[in-house]
Amino acid sequence: MIRVLVADDQPLVRAGLSALLGAENDIEVIGVAENGVEALALARQLVPDVACLDIRMPEMDGIEVATRLCGPDADPRIPVLVLTTFDIDDYVFRALEAGVAGFLLKDSDPDEILRAVRHIDGGRGTLDHALTRRIVDEYVQHRRLQPVSAGRALEMLTAREHDILLLLAEGMSNEQIAASLFVEVATVKSHLTRMLPKLGVRSRLQAVVWAYQNRVVEVPDPPRDRPGRDRGPR
């Protein structure tokens, strides 16, 4: 059972997301919060498998909550899925730098949200397809996610770690990487544990952005938006 905390300052969003998640046989909503302070307190008390956080919440914003739950000083580290109405703004980049496991827009299809929660619980990062190209482009052109250069990092990676990085950038889960390389899942996890510090990143999602940023893999072409879906800020 995947234990989930939901935090959003809008009652309708809290109720809708809680109902969506709670209707699944393998997901249980163990806590609901209406502001950041409450979300942080509940997360530390209940230690959910995934915390679904809005970005803009009263008393403490979702970025600060995420930093305390999954940042470098968090203990235990709780995976965070950010759900936002803003398709690109500085909050999203701050969340990525904090080490969140995934981003989705609030108007994502219900199946996308359910899939994201399951992916994150399974150790796999999630990015809304509409955000991926723009986030990667922003980091490539203007930002630095971390100080480790591609040349230096790739010198430190073993051949197997390099293979895993490429498969990670394709969006594969640990299980899919293990099957592709004919190794055990525990072996993949061990390689990831050693690989992330070499890249200077803290999460799988940051590793994927690092791979695109440093041209280890090519930036994907953006998919077409579904008809009638407005991607502008609200």
TrEMBL record:
The chain residues annotated with the modification 4-aspartylphosphate are D54
Cross-referenced PANTHER family:
TRANSCRIPTIONAL REGULATORY PROTEIN NARL-RELATED, TWO-COMPONENT RESPONSE REGULATOR
Q: Where is the HTH luxR-type domain?
A: 150-215
Tell me the classification of the organism that encodes this protein: Bacteria, Bacillati, Actinomycetota, Actinomycetes, Micrococcales
A molecular-function term among this protein's GO annotations: DNA binding
Please state every residue range assigned to the domain named Response regulatory. 3-121
Q: Name one Pfam family in it.
A: Response_reg
Work out whether the entry's keyword set contains Nucleotidyltransferase: no
A GO term (biological process) for this protein? Answer: regulation of DNA-templated transcription
Q: What is this protein called?
A: Response regulator transcription factor
Which keywords belong to this entry? DNA-binding, Phosphoprotein, Transcription, Transcription regulation
